[in-house]
Amino acid sequence: MPRTIMTSKDLVGMRVVGGKSGEKHIGKVRHLVFHPHERRVVGFIVKRPDLALMFHRKDLFVALDSFEIEDGRIVVSSESAATDKAACKRLGVDWDSCVLWYGMSIVTESGRTVGTVGTVSFEAMTGRVESVVADRGATSKALLGTVEIPVASIRGFRFGIGERISDLDDQGEYVEEQDALRGAILVSDDVLDMEPEGGIAEMAGHAVGKAKPVAREAVQKAGDAANKGVEALGKRVGETKGAFAGFKEEYQKARHEGDALPAASGSVDTSQSSGAKPVTKAASAKPKQDGGATVAKAIGKQVGKSKGMFAAFKEEYDKARK
């Protein structure tokens, strides 16, 4: 049977239902729960909605082997040993000793902190941890990327190192900073040599070096083709030197000729009061039409001179691409 790998992102936040009908709303997945000493997931905590939006309800523990995923929801088994203390007893784990890895410091054997626990990948059937992503905050993640630590480099949870995880002692009394309980995920020092992936720095510094040979060859070929096309275009422009300057000259000349054409004959409205300027009723569009035709002729004349300029570019470009 093929292994199925899941991640904490797959489960956290997912809706949870159960009961005899399998439809009763229970809550949403809050955290994964890890074995106190082994590198494996034993279940997850479900955050239950407050009763009548007023009274807090205790979170529910669900064993990893006691649920199915159906229609995007987690359906918890109705067996009594699927949840809470009964489930812990069946699994042989002490609930008070279980650990929530998410957000805990990741510390190397030499004492260097490399981040906090982010996404955890694990084997769905056994809960065996496959890898842990070292989260270093949103800004660092964007700039430097992330480091995925494989299980071979993970030593597991350790007390006495990393950040404080509790302000209380065994009797529930508050303790001083130096006496606070500490804990972290211990990893080997080879993690310090792992290269971050996916950050802006990597994309800027290594994108060209990591490009596949075929892609680099294609880019080079396209560049050569474009250069040859531009060279052909430049040659053609040289052959038609003055074409666009000539267009401007012909255009201005045509406009001048259009303005100089005689007005068309037509009647004059003299019905206006004395002293008013007469208004010619005949359309004055004819001079403009004639001028427009002359301008169009000028454009055609100059385009004819530059015929083939861009066709030459395309021809050379296509030849170089082959």
Automatic annotation (TrEMBL):
Segments for region (Disordered): 255-294
Domain of life: Bacteria
One Pfam family in the UniProt entry: PRC
Gene3D superfamilies per the UniProt record, alphabetical: PRC-barrel domain
Domain PRC-barrel, residue spans: 6-77, 102-152
Classification via InterPro entries: PRC-brl_dom, PRC_barrel-like_sf
SUPFAM superfamilies for this protein: PRC-barrel domain
Protein name from the UniProt record: PRC-barrel domain-containing protein
Organism the protein comes from: Candidatus Aveggerthella stercoripullorum
Taxonomic lineage from the root: Bacteria, Bacillati, Actinomycetota, Coriobacteriia, Eggerthellales
